[in-house]
């Protein structure tokens, strides 16, 4: 083994082999993969090899499509068969709600270029003779489904990488990782040492152990998973003979099973409710090519339904039952990317669908290592979507929940209960007493809406029980005054002698003067949006940044990467150290004025002013800004004053009929004002001109801020797309995100988010369309739940288009 490598990939499962292949494809030569045993010695060897393009997150769906389309290429490059069977397949709906979900999935697939079709149960039966159509109401056909040979795929990646000069050392176990002075890692193996600039954790079942070598506790849990393989089935043999085709791939949601042909019989797997973690604390190093004892009792309820839905199985003999472990993150998506504080250490772990996602994960990570950026939006699988709050107990509860619900519908208004409440603020119980219905984001409980006694969310894709109550919350904000908790925002203090210069370089806008705030987009080197903050100049070289809560670790990682080495700048996350409440609406000023000694009249405390004030006895930082789009204030206190602040505001607001409002109302209010939101409208896919944030970019400031040249190029060329807001002639469902936008009989874009603007009485959808179309007012359609609804472009916000209420 050579003493130095540019990259050491730890793990020769499908994921590590794909990372190695993609690095080689990008032209990196000095790259090495270390595998403690034979290749595929973790979960890869006993996988069922099923693959599919559909995923709840369209960006991951694209990577799945990429993965499957890559197989013929790696087969040709390596000369190793991947055993590819692209049979196509059906997702079967047993209930009208599932049918609605399939229609939605079909619509989303359109702009991803997926080849899907909605068919009747009878039609599905005509192509998949084993199913009994009486149990189904319809199906989604997906031409991209199928299966591949897990070992063949892994060896094909490895072989193709080797041909391009990559080295693979089998039977070489990584035992320790030490950071080197000056950068890079000392990789200690049982066969000697190797110095590497970059190390990739593709340890699969042992990814936790590899993480612990660098002091990282990754949120990963292995689960047992079972599938059975039948003896030859006459029905299968007859179908093959008569049609010359294989039996199709099938997912039966109600049965919680998947099926495909294996040899001349069938393979049936389940995601059973009574799921079981495997070796929850650590993975033994001597675990290898062995299987776990099957436990038919655990999967019997699923099999019973399966045998009813696919009666030929009742007569089939079972040839073997496979029970093997594989790893999950709490939300079931991979953990990919660099880790804050560990330069040169990369994750490619928790890939639970390696044969659908392995190619995309390898591509994203190789781009990230080579270019410093994954090249597309992989937010849904970024390791930075979890923080320190994702403890092993949290992970255990969430992974079980996710596994057992793998084939369950998640409604857009459904909040999942496992591991909650986790993080709460001091006003949590008060708000609960006022009827707050909570959701969780970044592990923190946050009010979604306020329900009258006895009213609960009725789970639905359509408007539901909360609709009229959220409407009342919105009207209270527009006509009187509302109060909301804002603790979920991420807050950072930036200080030090170099803070001004550093912020000027990190952020694309102009820095506000002392006592003022500014909207501050942040760009990457490619000029794409990677943050939208409110920046407050607190004076004395101290700055406060406020941004998206769930992006906290993502942003901290970016900051850490760019902090000067001389210690002249510090960035301190204030997460739970600072809590907030916001008041908004035409009466908000009266409420504030009743609690402070300062003059907060319009001229004395202007829009975007920020000041320290004492509300009653509570010392606070007050900013005149509101995400509702009207008059409003964000008030920040330390947790010990949070309850007092709530009491003071409620008391002072009582005379004005103050009403609590939650994040669902806030969504309706912000789309009414055409405000975008992070991870929806604002994401690394778009430039500031495309996102209509160009007025906040100081293209000509003397500082060479990150992304300046790319942003200037975008401005000169005009960008490719534009963010647009539409009024939708909706029926009883509003756009939520990812719906296709139609024009002239073609899908020209996709919705990023939407909602109902209650005060205006308008259903709103926003999304990106080609810039040349962005001026057309008429002729639009938005496909909501499979129904193409007429839509009209909004030229100006529905509320306060000239900013008079906001600035007044
Ligand atoms: C029963 C079953 C059925 C499945 N069916 C499917 C399916 O139909 N479709 C699908 O897409 N997925 C399926 N999966 C999941 C699939 O197996 C995983 O997504 C995939 O194997 C993950 O690959 P990996 O490379 O991340 O991990 P692994 O396959 O676990 O590979 C990790 C490798 O790293 C090596 N390693 C770890 N630590 C070290 C170290 N310190 N030094 C050197 N080497 C090390 C290990 O020996 C191992 O070879 C199934 C899984 C199971 C258990």
What do these coordinates show?
By secondary structure, the chain is α+β, with helices and mostly antiparallel strands. Strands 1, 2, 8, 9, 10, 11, 17 and 18 form an eight-stranded mixed sheet that branches. An eight-stranded mixed sheet has the order 5-6-4-13-14-15-12-16, with helices on both faces. A six-stranded mixed sheet has the order 28-29-30-27-21-31. β10 and β11 form a beta hairpin. The protein is globular and about 85 Å long. Bound molecules: flavin-adenine dinucleotide. Flavin-adenine dinucleotide (FAD) is lined by residues 10-16, 34-37, 41-44, 46-51, 173-174, 202-206, 210, 225, 227, 322, 324-326, 351-356. The site of flavin-adenine dinucleotide (FAD) has 41 residues, from α1, β3, β12, β16 and α9.
- Provide the low-confidence segments as ranges: none
User: Beta fraction of the residues?
Assistant: 25-35%
**Apparent shape:** globular
Helix percentage: 25-40%
Largest sheet: 8 strands, mixed
């Amino acid at each position: 083994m050579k003493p130095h490598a540019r990259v050491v990939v730890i793990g020769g499962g499908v994921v590590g082999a794909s990372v190695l292949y993609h690095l080689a494809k990008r032209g990196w030569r000095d790259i090495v993969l270390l595998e403690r045993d034979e290749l595929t010695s973790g979960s890869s060897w006993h996988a069922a090899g099923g693959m599919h393009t559909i995923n709840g997150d369209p960006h991951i769906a694209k990577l799945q499509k990429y993965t499957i389309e890559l197989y013929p290429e790696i087969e040709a490059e390596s000369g190793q068969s991947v055993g590819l069977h692209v049979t196509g397949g059906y997702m079967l709906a047993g209930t009208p709600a599932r049918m609605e979900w399939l229609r939605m999935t079909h619509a989303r697939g359109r702009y991803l270029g997926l080849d899907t079709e909605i068919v009747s149960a009878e039609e599905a039966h005509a192509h998949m003779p084993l199913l009994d159509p009486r149990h189904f109401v319809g199906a989604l056909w997906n031409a991209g489904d199928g299966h591949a040979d897990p070992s063949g795929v892994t060896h094909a990646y490895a072989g193709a990488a080797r041909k391009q000069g990559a080295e693979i050392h089998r039977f070489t176990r990584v035992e320790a990782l030490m950071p080197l002075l000056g950068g890079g890692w000392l990789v200690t193996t049982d066969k000697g040492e190797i110095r590497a600039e970059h190390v990739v954790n593709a340890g699969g079942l042992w990814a936790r152990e590899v993480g612990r070598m660098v002091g990282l506790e990754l949120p990963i849990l292995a689960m047992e998973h079972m599938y059975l393989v039948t003896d030859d089935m006459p029905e299968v043999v007859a179908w093959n003979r008569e049609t010359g085709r294989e039996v199709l791939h099938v997912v039966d949601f109600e049965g919680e099973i998947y099926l495909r042909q294996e040899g001349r019989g069938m393979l049936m797997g389940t995601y059973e409710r009574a799921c079981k973690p495997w070796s929850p604390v650590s993975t033994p190093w001597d675990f290898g090519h062995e299987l776990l004892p099957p436990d038919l009792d655990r999967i019997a309820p699923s099999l019973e339904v399966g045998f009813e839905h696919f009666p030929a199985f009742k007569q089939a003999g079972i040839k073997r039952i496979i029970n093997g472990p594989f790893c999950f993150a709490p939300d079931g998506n991979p953990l990919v990317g660099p880790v804050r504080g560990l330069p040169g250490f990369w994750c490619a772990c928790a890939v639970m669908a390696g044969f659908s996602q392995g190619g995309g994960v390898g591509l994203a990570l190789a781009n990230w290592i080579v270019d410093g950026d994954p090249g597309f939006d992989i937010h849904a699988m970024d390791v930075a979507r979890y923080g320190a709050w994702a403890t092993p107990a949290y992970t255990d509860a969430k992974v079980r929940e996710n596994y057992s619900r793998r084939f369950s519908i998640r409604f857009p208004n459904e909040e999942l209960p496992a591991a909650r409440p986790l993080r709460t603020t001091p006003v949590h119980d008060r708000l609960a007493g006022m009827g707050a219905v909570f959701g969780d984001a970044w592990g923190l409980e946050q009010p979604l809406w306020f329900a009258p006694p006895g009213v609960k969310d009725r789970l639905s894709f359509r408007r539901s029980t909360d609709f009229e109550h959220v409407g009342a919350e919105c009207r209270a904000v527009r006509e009187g005054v509302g109060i909301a908790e804002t603790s979920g925002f991420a807050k950072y203090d930036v200080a030090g002698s170099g803070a001004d210069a550093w912020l000027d370089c990190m952020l694309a806008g102009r820095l506000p003067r002392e006592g003022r705030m500014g909207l501050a987009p942040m760009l990457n080197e490619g000029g794409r949006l990677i943050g939208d903050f409110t920046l407050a100049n607190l004076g004395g070289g101290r700055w406060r940044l406020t941004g998206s809560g769930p992006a906290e670790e993502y942003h901290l990682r970016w900051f850490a990467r760019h902090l000067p080495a001389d210690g002249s700048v510090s960035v301190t996350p204030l997460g739970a150290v600072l809590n907030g409440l916001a008041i908004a609406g035409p009466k908000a000023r009266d409420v504030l004025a009743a609690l402070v000694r300062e003059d907060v009249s319009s001229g004395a405390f202007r829009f975007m002013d920020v000041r320290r004030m004492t509300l009653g006895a509570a010392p606070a930082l007050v900013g005149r800004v509101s995400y509702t789009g009207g008059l409003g204030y964000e008030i920040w206190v330390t947790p010990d004053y949070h309850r007092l602040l709530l009491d003071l505001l409620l008391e002072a607001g009582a005379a004005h009929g103050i009403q609590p409002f939650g994040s669902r109302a806030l969504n309706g209010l912000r789309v009414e004002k055409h405000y975008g939101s992070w991870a929806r409208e604002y994401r690394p896919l778009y430039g500031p001109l495309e996102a209509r944030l160009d007025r906040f970019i100081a293209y000509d400031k003397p500082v060479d801020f990150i992304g300046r040249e790319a942003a200037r190029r975008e401005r000169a060329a005009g960008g490719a797309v534009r963010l647009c807001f539409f009024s939708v002639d909706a029926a009883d469902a509003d756009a939520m995100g990812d719906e296709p936008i139609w024009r002239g009989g073609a899908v020209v874009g996709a919705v990023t988010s939407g909602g109902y603007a209650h005060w205006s009485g308008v259903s709103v959808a926003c999304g990106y369309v080609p810039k040349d179309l962005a001026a057309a007012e008429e002729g639009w359609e938005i496909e909501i739940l499979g129904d193409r609804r007429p839509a009209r472009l909004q030229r100006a916000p529905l509320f306060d288009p000239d900013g008079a209420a906001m600035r007044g």
